[in-house]
């Protein structure tokens, strides 16, 4: 049935593409040539487009461009490039004539004109978005020396990444204190990142696959459906923009004992007329296991991973475009002890091997002037996992999991010159989501089959007044695990108090269906036994109601450009999911059950400040103060003497980040970055210790220092040499459990101890 649906949809896309192809149209012979400069210097690889069409080109290495067979008549040419303010010039293009147009761009050092797509399912300048959208880009990944997604996510307000297992390295990202399953992770705006992907996925995705990551805090179910309670993380893959290549190698030494080597390769090609483009990535990573306390058991597991993928597009006409993407990720990871033996011959082993295939096909159709846009898409990701989660030489702990996530739909956007009171943008669409999961572990008598089918319809309208924007919308979802359809509304009001001071107000909702989540698919060893999570028979849908208000200001202090944001947020959760220890099963395995608690509320303040002292010196920092409370005290252990929890575990009340870049000389850069994590409550289960307790953890400051130097090898080939230290002051947990009776989930603080690294990048663009 699935294959049949995909075949029909693919055939439809191809048919529409052929119909949209204007090969029979004569060439206009209207040509445009020119150059792009900034501060007297020519800029290479700047995008030049004819506005309201997809016709365009890019400047070459010398900053010059040539555009052939452009649409005739009165047109608007637009030049835009990351880090610069776009410039538009009106021009009258005539057949059989060549027109010269020169652009002079001004730097946009604070990022006001950065384009985002997550705010309203369409392209919007970040400054004009009705909700706050934070962006993680290549510069930040570069500054923090991140080699995978998880190593960069903590450098945004309200976000924090944590490691939850000493054996296998299960990681999750928290938004505003809420654990990983409360966040919706998207790949190119599609929800194909499933529960199984969430177990290890943020460490499996290499940074060279990513163009940028867009983050929205607060409920997002009105746009993207189930699970977008805490927020939305949208991973935008790299699109071909110009001809380029780069090869990067990064070698790290963890605590002076453990190797971590990563190789990345990227290449892209774009035709001279920008009608077609192709980009690809490849990656390979090998990390050894790390033992922090000398007990023979790992605190960081062994990883061997690789990836390969591409993104391509073809423009059939000035008003049609088809995009295809694909990625393949393969990863082996293992933690525990006795790595030279088979898993069932060891005291503890958690081992997985993933094979992930994913991709997307999108057809975009426009009308002249771009007043109408129709996008039809199908996106899917299949994950195959072989696993061993066992202790005590258990031969029955092997398992395998198959997972398919698919989304298909259409979205229509219409630009109104005036709808009732003001110009407006209407967005509507429908999509179908499918997730088929089968997790088998015969030795534990575990055979989890979960088929999720969701039909969704969304509608929203955004009005643009002179000094304000109002967005109202809702999404209707029919989830097969929920009896009634769920309506998720949203409302956003943006007021431009002054051209450089904005006030945003947001109301949004979210929901989580009673289904298995990422931690349910991770089996953890505690006290020499495995710990399993099951769902309560009467588990109900969890819902959220989020409110936020924020002030976003842009101002200058002398030559210093500033962007300061303060945001207050409040989220109320009803029928909140919690995990509670309930005893053991017939085989002696510890059992946890996912149940509904009375509810919870999360509130706090996010602060962010960006300071551009000059093009050579930049500082970005953020800080969060928050409270995460259950509405009534909740049990977390089957030990009746254990204290009840009023505060949600693993949710510090203070945390933050900073990133400073200095370029005192043209070729030399210094990066100082770091995160702060305040004290929090962490459950510590009996095994190595006598009884279950709640640990009040210390606070941590994790600082990184990095240096880079650029060298010209030949014309068009450059090299960058890098070195530095992560976790400079070795701020790391010191009270890990020891031996086979340990609680592998008793982890907190920075992800790894002091790590020294060196690297080299060879590219035609730095």
UniProtKB/TrEMBL annotation:
Residues 127-232 form the TonB-dependent receptor plug domain. GO terms for biological process: siderophore transmembrane transport. It comes from Breznakibacter xylanolyticus. InterPro entries: Beta-barrel_TonB_sf, CarboxyPept-like_regulatory, Plug_dom, Plug_dom_sf, TonB-dep_rcpt-like. This is Outer membrane receptor for ferrienterochelin and colicins. Keywords: Cell outer membrane, Membrane, Receptor, Signal, Transmembrane, Transmembrane beta strand, Transport. The keyword Glycoprotein does not apply. The keyword Ribonucleoprotein does not apply. GO terms for molecular function: siderophore uptake transmembrane transporter activity.
């Amino acid at each position: 049935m699935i294959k049949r649906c995909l075949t029909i949809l693919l055939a439809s896309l191809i048919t529409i593409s052929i119909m949209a192809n204007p090969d029979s149209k004569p060439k206009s012979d209207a040509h445009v040539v020119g150059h792009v400069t900034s501060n007297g210097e020519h800029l290479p690889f700047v995008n030049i487009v004819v506005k309201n069409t997809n016709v365009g080109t890019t400047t070459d290495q010398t900053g010059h461009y040539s555009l052939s067979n452009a649409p005739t008549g009165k047109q608007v040419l637009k030049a835009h490039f990351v880090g610069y303010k776009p410039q538009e010039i009106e021009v009258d293009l005539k057949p059989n004539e060549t027109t010269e147009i020169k652009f002079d761009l001004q730097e946009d050092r604070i990022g006001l004109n950065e384009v985002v797509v997550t705010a309203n399912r369409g392209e919007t300048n970040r400054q004009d978005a009705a909700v706050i959208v934070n962006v993680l880009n290549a510069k930040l990944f570069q500054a923090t020396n991140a080699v995978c997604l998880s190593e960069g996510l903590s450098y945004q307000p309200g976000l924090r990444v944590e490691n939850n297992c000493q054996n296998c390295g299960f990681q999750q990202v928290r938004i505003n204190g809420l654990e990983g399953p409360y966040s919706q992770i998207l790949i190119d705006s599609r929800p194909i990142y499933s529960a199984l992907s969430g177990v290890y996925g943020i460490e499996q995705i290499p940074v060279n696959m990513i163009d940028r990551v867009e983050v929205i805090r607060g409920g997002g179910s009105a746009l993207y459906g189930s699970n977008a309670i805490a927020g939305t993380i949208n991973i935008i893959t790299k699109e071909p923009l110009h001809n380029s290549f780069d090869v990067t190698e990064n070698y790290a030494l963890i605590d002076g004992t453990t190797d971590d080597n990563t190789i990345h390769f990227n290449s892209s090609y774009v035709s001279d007329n920008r009608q077609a483009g192709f980009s690809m990535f490849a990656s390979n990573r090998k990390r050894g296991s790390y033992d922090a306390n000398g007990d023979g058991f790992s605190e960081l597991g062994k990883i061997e991973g690789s990836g390969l993928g591409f993104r391509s597009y073809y423009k059939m006409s000035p008003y049609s475009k088809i995009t295809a993407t694909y990625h393949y990720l393969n990863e082996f990871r293992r933690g525990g002890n006795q790595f030279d033996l088979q898993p069932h011959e060891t005291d503890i082993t958690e081992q997985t091997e993933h094979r992930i295939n994913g991709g997307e096909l999108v057809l975009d159709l426009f009308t002249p002037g771009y007043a109408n846009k129709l996008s039809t898409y199908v996106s899917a990701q299949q994950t195959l996992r072989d696993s061993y989660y066992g202790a005590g030489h258990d031969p029955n702990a092997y398992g395998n999991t198959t997972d398919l996530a698919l989304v298909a739909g259409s979205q229509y956007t219409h630009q109104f010159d005036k709808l009732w009171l003001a110009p407006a943008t209407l967005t509507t669409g429908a999509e179908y989501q499918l997730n088929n999961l089968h997790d088998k572990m015969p030795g534990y008598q575990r055979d989890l089959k979960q088929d999720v089918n969701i039909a969704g319809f969304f509608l929203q309208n955004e009005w643009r007044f002179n000094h304000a924007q109002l967005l109202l919308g809702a999404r209707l979802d029919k989830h097969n695990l929920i009896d009634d359809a769920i309506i998720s509304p949203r409302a956003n009001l943006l007021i431009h108090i002054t051209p450089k001071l904005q006030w945003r107000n947001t109301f949004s909702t979210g929901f989580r269906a009673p289904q298995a989540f990422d931690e349910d698919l991770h089996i953890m060893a505690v006290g020499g036994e495995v710990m399993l999570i099951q769902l309560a028979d009467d588990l109900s849908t969890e819902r959220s109601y989020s409110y936020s208000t924020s002030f976003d200001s842009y101002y200058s202090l002398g030559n210093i450009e500033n962007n300061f944001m303060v945001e207050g947020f409040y989220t109320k959760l009803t029928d909140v999911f919690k995990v509670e220890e309930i005893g053991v099963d017939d085989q002696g395995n510890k059992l946890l059950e996912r149940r509904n608690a009375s509810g919870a509320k999360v509130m706090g303040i996010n602060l962010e400040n960006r300071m551009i002292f000059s093009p050579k010196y930049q500082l970005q920092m953020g800080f969060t103060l928050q409270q995460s409370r259950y509405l009534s005290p909740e049990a977390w252990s089957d030990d009746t003497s254990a204290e009840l929890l009023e505060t949600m575990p693993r949710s510090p009340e203070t945390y933050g980040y900073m990133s400073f870049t200095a370029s005192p000389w043209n070729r030399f850069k210094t990066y100082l970055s770091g995160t702060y994590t305040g004290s929090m409550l962490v459950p510590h289960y009996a095994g190595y210790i006598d009884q279950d307790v709640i640990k009040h953890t210390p606070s941590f400051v994790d600082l990184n220092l990095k240096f880079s130097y650029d060298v010209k090898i030949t014309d068009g080939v450059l090299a960058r040499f890098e070195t530095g230290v992560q976790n400079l002051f070795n701020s790391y947990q010191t009270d890990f459990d020891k031996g086979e009776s340990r609680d592998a989930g008793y982890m907190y603080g920075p992800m790894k101890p002091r790590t020294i690294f060196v690297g080299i990048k060879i590219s035609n663009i730095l």
